[in-house]
């Protein structure tokens, strides 16, 4: 967007950081990739653009861009709702426009007005295999769908209704991320412009849980642990993964001594989860438990390193073996995150550990579906709002998005073999696993070397941390327990290097 003060087009070097505490962070003046990309719309923002006198506030811009990118994702699905979902199994893969939504309209009984969890389905799937709040979302979309005309017409309408509801979720996610770290609203553009986000948004119903999780992160950043817990409990009632955010919160609150806030969050999460689940659990236990039984019993599936092992072994791992080892790996990752938290020279930011925990879960899981990238995008933006690293990861995810559909096209096209053979798909899996591992590596580096953290280099401590932001440490281990003394006061008390007042605006320790 043009402004009165623009960086010359001949250079994209970020300007030195010089700001007051209240001044918003300008990515186009600090991030070389953002600065280069801004030349397409007139160059980096100038100071007059930050006065707040225009209707075009950062949050509004982020929301509109998110809706625009979501709409482009809908356009990308055009070949499917024009017929590929209904008349050709392989064409929905060759056009990379597959979605579970229209197929499950009839396959899970919504076309026949069956009540999820209470009414038994015909065929191999006896009950709906989704958590309760997601089932409610699916049922509400069914109520809004015209139950007239051909089944293809109804499935098409069901997808459109769900797409409209999911668009609202996408806008909520982008706005929550833009508002979570107060001085970094423009980071929400990373969510809004994420190509993998737009491509995978309507594959399934994951955006509901992601929106609730993003809202929970916003509440925690505003020091409202009970509201955080309620939203996290609702998110867990829609998808299992948000539950894992309590693990990094535990070790962070332990290091900072914030036990009261942690138990408020746990109590809110448990209460909200029970309010949603208990009625169904009591009156339709078999239907309610289907999600958990299905998650336990399903074999290795798309996107995971387990699938590569299974498809290249004469003795593939059994489901019980994978369940056990995957669980052990998640526990080991959590223990590693705990050790990192207690020994880091400065207490890690909540968003950093949240991203690492969810990434550990999806990397070790027996399935890493293409839409799981939606779980990681908001957390990745809060953990590492650096355009270069984010785009490297997104490129890997887009490559995998194309790879899985081309592989399915290959397996469903008969003797024609249109698409990507098995070994090519395995390379696509490796690429998207490496992309996620790369982002994990730079986040861990930021924790071990806080001067490299782009958020803290801007002068903040933990803007998504709420009560943890600027808090004193009460429990640390290793070198973190013995910080160096200030050179000017060798006999004085140890300096707490985790406190923001001991860091310059450029992020260098005093």
Description:
This protein has 21 helices and no strands. The protein has 510 residues and is an all-alpha fold. It folds into two domains: 1-54, no CATH class; 55-467, no CATH class.
Broad shape: globular
Give the beta-strand count: 0
The biggest sheet amounts to:
none
Relative helix content: 55-70%
Helix count from the secondary structure assignment: 21
- State the low-pLDDT regions, or none: 1-21, 485-510
What's the gyration radius in Å?
A: 24 Å
List the domain count as a whole number. 2
Terminal CA distance reads 36 Å
- Class by alpha and beta content: mainly alpha
Q: Give the H and E element order.
A: HHHHHHHHHHHHHHHHHHHHH
Strand content: under 5%
Average pLDDT over all residues: 87
Region (Disordered): 1-30, 483-510
Organism: Streptomyces albidocamelliae
Family: Belongs to the glycosyltransferase 87 family.
InterPro entries: GT87, UCP010361
